[in-house]
Amino acid sequence: MIGHRGASGYRPEHTLEAYQLAIDMGADFIEPDLVSTRDGVLVARHESEISRTTDVARRPEFAHLHTTKVIAGATVSGWFTEDFTLAELRTLRAVERLPQLRPANTAFDGLFQVPTLAEIVDLAQRRGVGIYPETKHPTYFAGIGLPLEEPLVATLEASGLRHRTSPVFIQSFEPSSLRKLAEMTDVRLVQLLSVTGRPHGSESTGDRRSYAEMAAPLGLREIAGYADGIGPAKELIVPRGEDGGPMTPTSLVLDAHGAGLVVHPYTFRRENGFLPLHLSAGNPTAPMYAQATGDLLAELRLFLELGVDGVFTDNPDVAVATRTRMLASRPLNGCARAG
Ligand code: G3P
Ligand code: CA
């Protein structure tokens, strides 16, 4: 059970408080997305542009840092972690990314700082859980002289996290980042797979494969050459029809297991707005329908029954409860018959 950006269904994402809550709820791993500051410190943000997840837009002292950049093919305007020193970034405060969908979380706006990777590793080790960091736009960061892999491996190693058995998975959408990491560390690596498109950063290696090609049996065998698992979008396992309903599951879980890869799909969230239609609850014409809680437990049960090895979830409490229920309903060896 991987606390996605912490317990981000209940607290502003990527804050120590969100990670702490995920651990309190029983998460086995906590997930920071990693970007760099100007002085080369890794911090947890989903993207380096921070206007949606911090109060930077209301801070006149940083108005001069507003700019426009092209990152991984997309033009983005705002404020970027790579233009802030860690000391400057620490003066900002986190805000809820999805205030319309998660209005209760805005009660925590303005309270929490942007955490460093080192702080998150320290928290995970003190609380006895694993860490599941993602390199975000690693080719872009390498191109501006702030590569992510070196400080990531150095921070993990400083905490003794260097072995295949260490409670760590490093994930990335970009195979070039994972291939580089495979040369640098023995900790386990996970290739993220999106529903559409192709990874950035592989052009220089001549690799033009799409995510769909990577998810096919041949592509999975190739991934097994440098990684230990895949993190697919959940729709790659249970596609949705045009009406939002579930279609027949694909063979991805079986194919990946056949290639020796673990499977950790993303992202399981309880709000109707993220659930397939048949698991949503309430009156679709009601104004609060998208925020209302649907049957995440049923969605998780389906994926666990399909054999996934873990899940990224914004609601670790629901995921842990689902696992507990499924384990409790499983007959113990011989006990069902004997009893
Ligand atoms: O890392 C799993 C999942 O988080 C990947 O998508 O964009 O939410 O980081 P994203
Ligand atoms: Ca992520």
TrEMBL record:
Cellular component GO terms, alphabetical: periplasmic space
Catalytic activity of the protein: a sn-glycero-3-phosphodiester + H2O = an alcohol + sn-glycerol 3-phosphate + H(+)
Name of the top EC class for this enzyme: hydrolase
Keywords from the UniProt entry: Glycerol metabolism, Hydrolase, Signal
Gene3D superfamilies: Phosphatidylinositol (PI) phosphodiesterase
GO biological processes: glycerol metabolic process; lipid metabolic process
EC number: 3.1.4.46
Gene Ontology terms, MF aspect: glycerophosphodiester phosphodiesterase activity
Statement: the UniProt record of this protein carries the keyword Transcription regulation: no
Statement: the UniProt record of this protein carries the keyword Signal: yes
Domain GP-PDE: 1-323
Family to which the UniProt record says this protein belongs: Belongs to the glycerophosphoryl diester phosphodiesterase family.
The protein, known as: glycerophosphodiester phosphodiesterase
Organism of provenance: uncultured Acidimicrobiales bacterium
Source species taxonomy: Bacteria, Bacillati, Actinomycetota, Acidimicrobiia, Acidimicrobiales
